[in-house]
What does this fold into?
Amino acid sequence: NGFLCREAIRKYIRDLDLLRKPGDVVQYSCLNAILCAEVIRAVSGMEHSEFAAKHVFQPLGMTETGFCPSHEFSARLVPTTKMDYGRGPGGFLLGQVHDPLAAMQGGISGNAGLFSTVADLSRYAQMMLNLGELDGVRILQPETIQQMVRIQNPEAKNTQGNLSRRGLLWGIDETEPGDQGEAMVEAYGHTGYTGTAIRIYPEHGVYIIALANRVHPDDSGKVDLFREKVWRTVGEVLMRAAP
It folds into this structure.
């Protein structure tokens, strides 16, 4: 409900017992990403929002990326859903994180709360394609990028029993014997609950950024089919362009 309990929720997550042995089953969870942010805070002494701004966003020139955007950006922000504490016209969330776990942390969380633009995200995607460097500024070492986008769990399955291959937080699409058409194009990426997505094709030097807003006005919009069609279309174009 928009009430802050930052330290309490973080302590609760830190103290949770494991449900399964590491490497046993893949279960996508916001708690994992929140814990990653806690690791950054413990090691660096900074909130991960400050750490990312200092070591990633500012060096990359991503001037419109960050958590809890100020009111000066209000005219360019898109509303999501209506809440009692929404600051936008009609009580809609505007420049406020949609995710409740992140909202309870004041909008600064490892799982949600980052606001950005296509232009800024393009710079990040190009840095990934360049193995950690952009415009003479190195953000990550090539070895780090390779670990991020390498399948870390080749045989791991999700709770439904299907293969669920992931890198370091990235979802990985790797080709399989017998794949045809666009399925032969390797990619990695990530999707967001509100409709956002990024997908990178390292062998082709191509990336896709989709900033849909499926949760406005009542959290009932669907975006999966749209994203699937975009991925399929781009994959087909890349296959036709391949030598």
